[in-house]
Structures are given as structure tokens and as C-alpha cells.
Description:
Blueprint: H1 6-22, H2 29-53, H3 65-71, H4 73-103, H5 108-125
Amino acid sequence: MKKxxxxxxxxxxxxxxxxxxxxxxxxxxxxxxxxxxxxxxVSLVVLMAMMYLLDAVYWMNGVSFEQAVEAxxxxxxxxxxxxxxxxxxxxxxxTLYSIVAYVLHFPWVVDIVVFTVATxxxxxxxxxxxL
Length: 131
């Protein structure tokens, strides 16, 4: 295991670049906001998948590189997989919600509140996973 944050930096640059470029899409504000939030949810899944595939759980808040090394590869993979699964379920659920909200013409403010609260709940819930 080698400590490197290159993958995390690349993810952050690509995410930021795509979000910036997305601002130029010819969409109404309500649809653009939904697209951004779905993209963010999916991007979090990509980040979790990178942590799983690259064996880089030390990218997560509260896990040091030393703790990750001590845990061993099986525990690291399990820890990363649990996060990947949780954030994957969140991304699917939010995407489905977003489609329904768009079809039913929910106000975009509701979408932002739902996304923000759901993201916080998922992040806090993930704290129950221990390395």
C-alpha cells in the first residue's frame, strides 16, 4: 500500500470542471439544479468506488493512512464497500426522487432541501461503519 492523494485530486478537478461546464447547459434553473444534484450524488459514488478499487480508505475523514495499513486489506475493502453501497443506494434513490419531482413540478427549493438533508443523513449514517 502506497500513500497517494493523486486519485482524489484528479476526482476533485474533474468534478469541479464538469460542474463548471454544466453551468453552460441550456436548461432552465429548476432542471439544471436537479442535474447538478444528481451529478453530485453520482460523483460521490464514483469517489467511493475509487476508494474501494484503489484501496484508499485513508481519503475518508477520520481514517489515517497508518490506521488503514494496520487494518489490513480485507477490512479496508469491506469498509470501502459498505460506503460504496450506501452512497450508491442514496444516488439511485435521489435520482428517482429527482425524476418524480421534475415530472410533478416540485419547487427546486424542495429539491435542494431533500438533497442536503439526505446527504447529511447518509454521511452521518456512514459513521457507524468502523475500519
